[in-house]
Write a structure and sequence with these properties.
Blueprint (H helix, E strand, L loop, with lengths): L6 H35 L3 E2 L6 E8 L9 H18 L5 E5 L3 E6 L5 H9 L4 E9 L11 E2 L6 E4 L5 E4 L4 E2 L3 E9 L5 E8 L1 H14 L11 E5 L3 E3 L17 E8 L1 H13 L6 E9 L5 H50 L3 E2 L1 H30 L6 H33 L2 H33 L2 H5 L11 H9 L7 H21 L3 E2 L1 H4 L1 E8 L5 H10 L6 E5 L3 E6 L4 H15 L2 E9 L5 H25 L2 H25 L2 E2 L1 H31 L5 H33 L2 H23 L1 H13 L28 H5 L3
Parallel strand pairs: 1-16, 17-22
Antiparallel strand pairs: 2-4, 2-15, 3-4, 5-8, 5-9, 5-12, 6-7, 7-8, 10-11, 11-14, 12-13, 18-20, 18-21, 19-20
Membrane topology: Multi-pass membrane protein
Pfam family, one: Sec_GG
Family: Belongs to the SecD/SecF family. SecD subfamily.
Length: 797
Amino acid sequence: MKRSRPPSRSRSRSRTRSRSLNVRALVALAVMAGAVAIALTMPVRLGLDLRGGTQIVLETKSTETTKADREATDRTVEVLRGRIDALGVAEPTIVRSGENRVVVELPGVQDPKKAADVLGRTAQLTVHSVLGAAEKPADATEGRTETAEDGERVLPDESGQSLRLKAATLTGQDVKGADARFDQQNGAGWTVTVDFKDSGSDRWAQVTGEAACNPAGDPTRRVAIVLDDKIISSPQVDPSVSCGAGITGGSTQITGSFDDAEARELALLIKGGALPVPVETIEQRTIGATLGDEAIDAGAWAAVIGTALTALFIIVVYRLMGALATVALLCYGLISYAALAAVGATLTLPGLAGFVLAIGMAVDANVLVFERAREEQAARTRPSTRSALTAGFRSAFSAIADSNITTLIAAALLFFLASGPVKGFGVTLGIGVLASMVSALVITRVLAEFAASRPAVFRRPRITGISSTGPVRDALLRRDPFLMRRPRRWLAASLIVLVVAGSGILVRGLNFGIEFTGGRLIEYSTATQVDPDRARDALADAGFPRAVVQSSGDGDLTVRTEELTDTEAATVTKAVAELGGETEKVRDELIGPSLGEELRRDALIALGLALAAQLAYLAVRFRLLFGTAAVGALAHDVVILVGVFAWLGKPIDGVFLAALLTVIGYSVNDSVVLFDRIRELLGKERKAPFDRLTNDAILQTLPRTVNTGMGAVLILASLAILADDSLTDFALALLIGVGVGTYSSVFTASPLAIELHNRDTGSRPGRRRGGRTRATGKSEKPGKQVPTSRTERQEVR
């Protein structure tokens, strides 16, 4: 006989649930109110491909010691890239043009002139001992005089007094970093703190120790800090510093009448380093979008249709809960948009497509919860929709948290260690992950629990969509396949696919795009202004489908393509002339890669560290063998995707790079969800064979895998079919990645984990045994039946 639950305890639990629901509702309302306010007041900055921007052409100049050749110009490109990142301009394009020119394209810059000034400053930082006041003032026209023999110079200080300076003791190469800070304690206002490297720290102590030997107030007790032949600070060494000892600690503070903008600008110039050679701004103009209006409209329509299909699929599968999840996903889209606007991120067309794909992937958290709720509902003799949902959220939390934390680790490392578009991808990825967690764990839960507590829903549980186990789970329960009976066969099949796909890299090689290889830039002035959309179509018909065409300046047209022979260049010119009449070449130069060697190296280092950090996290949260298996499956997916693109001859460019990074996140996410279920089953049945537990985990999570994959595939198929050619390759890469990632999480990561486990324990794969509930991994107990299918549950009274 069952003991009835005391009424006071039931009322207490009801009040606790009600309070929790109210708190979540308030949090959800606050988040949505903030998102709406930001979305209405702060527009998202659009990238060069969607809106265009400002183009600045810089020319490097030779000095007495350094020639402005191709190598010096390439080094200048990398320094400029660091300055642009520090300026907060996302998704720029920076390429070397010819031997000594740099073309910089900046999207959405509010003050192009200031940006050009910051980029054009050489930023040669030097530190000098002061020999005394100069009897002869510095030349008013030159600003300095130098003695060739000993490197002395005369420069005016901040007040205009001319000082004789000794040859430089430290240079910008001795600087480790610089930060702008507001010194409220000493009333110094905005200052710039400069940190020196080890060797620079010793020389700083030396120069300040020598100055400390002179009497207070004497000019020789000062140390001059010079930037681009101008003294920006010449402080007296404090009387507390003893002669010969100097200032230790490896840092100094530059003070002056700075406002916050000037201090930050100075800090980024010092931190970014000096340009190898001086540069001069020779041209500044407005440029049009690299994609036409038709391409943008096609991408937008594909995104809308794909999102609608995904929402319809979720509603069909999960009914009322699916409809509520769709509302939460719309909220997710608004939160992500507001977050992108708040951090000043730049939205490009691949970023927009990735943003839409993230909506499809954000379905995953909702699917995880609803599938766990279905399991809970099926396992209870007196099921309650609300209690099943509560249990579903509780059971799915660890899988959602672990999969999102691993992705956040990768996003953080990409943001802090990489640069350029890879850094921008880290921002978008991190925002998407955080927004999806808020959407699923707060907004969906508030809506679902509120709906489940309504009397109309309580009386009609079938409309919730979680009262049945679903056709996929029912089919698996009927057949109960033992997929992991022979894990080595699955590994052999994965190895064959890996070798076949990977051989494309060796046989056909990789077709790197213009971002990696550089190419040719031709600018035309035409008698009649040419529409860039028509020019793109004409060049595609002429055999140059990957040419980047932009309007430039006052009616000119710029064509950027891979390296061309003279015959091919003539074909391009003929195609433009047929549209614009009399055509003149304004510029015809070879350009370097926009994704330079240093950027690629930083991206690879960041990606390698991200994988290592994910492996370490999975080893701590699960076991080392799970982390190893997940990373092994990830490597499998990457090689197959790159290999397929090699066989197809598709370009490996910036768009493909964004797709590859997305696939990496998707693959790890799939594996983590499966390993989370294996961990849960291991906690319940430690003596059960590992291969059987893995098989049960696969069968239990397969409905989630199928439904999440369908959500992503519907959006990607829409992009591949309806969008412009520029997005077709992006969608194709992601379709391949989603398919391979879904396969590898089940048939590569799982068999690999089994083999690693067997090697550690010396055990053999298990064989079928009786007395086990299907797809649960639990032994049946006499007198108690756990309903696991639709038919069994309906027989329970």
